[in-house]
Specification:
The protein contains three helices and eleven strands; from the N terminus they run H-H-E-E-E-E-E-E-H-E-E-E-E-E. With 220 residues, the chain is of the alpha+beta class.
Length: 220
């Protein structure tokens, strides 16, 4: 039997249409494809060096239990490694020159460099080397590490925050970090104590250390 050409053409069209519909039906809807989560980006850990012109390494200690004396160290180097998007990757190594201490009073600075305190000729630097990032909560972190002062090494924890990132002159990536900790200077062999007539301590035992750091990507 011969079928009319138009009938055969129509049947072929139906078969092809159904086949195409079946293939398309096996694919997820466009909306589902759009909502599928992308693969997470790989972390990018980079090395950063401190920009001393925009950073502060300072300390604060009580005098007579009343006013606070604030000072800085003006000569230091530090190297950081971190991915700003993942603070658990942070690693820090720093070295501070004791001779660079500056409290705004040369006589006091000379006393602090002397054997009564830092003994700068024998122990010329202060060092810090991180060991772990113990807690991360958003941009806040706690950085554990070993602090060496006056030849004595003790574990400390710096509490800090990543202030943000920015592209600086020349297209180099920069990060801003603040951190602080408080130590008892006697734990590091800084035991000099003179008492007032009333028995009070002239120089407080607790020393607050604070860092305001801007660092630039190394080798960028």
């Amino acid at each position: 039997m011969q079928y009319p050409t138009i009938w055969l053409t129509s049947a072929l069209f139906v078969v092809l249409t159904l086949a195409g519909f079946s293939q398309r039906g096996a694919e997820p809807p466009a909306e589902a494809r759009a909502e599928a989560p992308a693969a997470p980006a790989a972390f990018e850990v980079a090395a950063f060096e401190i920009d001393q012109a925009h950073s502060t390494v300072g300390f604060k200690v009580r005098h007579l239990g009343l006013a606070s004396v604030t000072g800085t160290f003006d000569d230091y180097t530090a190297r950081l490694q971190l991915d700003p998007a993942d603070l658990s990757t942070m690693e820090v190594a720093a070295r501070i020159e004791v001779e660079s201490i500056d409290t705004g009073n040369e006589r006091r600075d000379g006393h602090l460099r002397s054997p009564d305190f830092f003994e700068a000729e024998t122990h010329p630097d202060i060092r810090f080397e991180s060991t772990d990032v113990t807690e991360v909560d958003g941009n806040a972190f706690k950085l554990a590490g070993d602090l060496t002062i006056h030849g004595v090494t003790r574990p400390v924890v710096l509490e800090g925050a990543l202030l943000g990132t920015a592209e600086g002159p020349g297209g180099k990536q920069r990060v801003g970090i603040e951190a602080e900790t408080t130590i008892d200077r006697r734990d590091f062999g800084l035991t000099w104590d003179n008492l007032t007539e009333a028995g009070g301590v002239i120089v407080g035992h607790d020393v607050k250390i604070f860092l305001e750091i801007e660092a630039v990507e190394a080798g960028a």
